[in-house]
Amino acid sequence: MTAHGYFSTYGLVGLVLLVGAGFVAAAFSANRLLRPDAPSVEKLMTYECGVDPVGEGWAQTHIRYYIYAYLYVIFAVDAIYLFPWATVFADPGFGATTLVEMFVFVGFLAVGLLYAWRKGVLTWT
């Protein structure tokens, strides 16, 4: 392979990036030129789910909401790993091995859930 052939592939990648950037710039320019523009006081006001904003923009949220969200994400992602396991479990020769591996995996999840329960994270008070 010659140096000229090697560097020509970079030129092709650069050309594709340049065309892509030009397409994005053209799309944003067309959007700015073609959109209707009629600002008013109501349109410039902060929107909060159809309710007029009241008070300051600063509000504290209790940490338990974040903990519930993290726990949900952890267990939802872990539940996704059960689907590939279920497909491999049916294949011949994988039954006992995959069953033991999945019990270890679910055991780790159970220990994490037990820890969260013992720490009182799952109580909603």
Summarize the SSE layout with pairings.
Blueprint: H1 3-34, H2 41-44, H3 63-80, H4 82-89, H5 95-118
Describe it for me?
With about 120 residues, this protein is mostly helical. It has two domains: about 5-35; about 65-120. The protein is built from five helices and no strands. The chain has helices spanning about 5-35, 40-45, 65-80, 80-90, 95-120. The N and C termini lie far apart (about 70 Å). The mean pLDDT is about 80.
Cα-atom Rg, whole angstroms?
27 Å
**Domain tally:** 2
Report how far apart the termini are. 69 Å
Poorly predicted residue ranges: none
Number of strands: 0
User: What would you call the structural class?
Assistant: mainly alpha
How many separate helices?
A: 5
Shape: flat
Helix content: 55-70%
Strand-residue proportion: under 5%
Largest sheet: none
The overall pLDDT, averaged over residues, is 82
Order of helices and strands: HHHHH
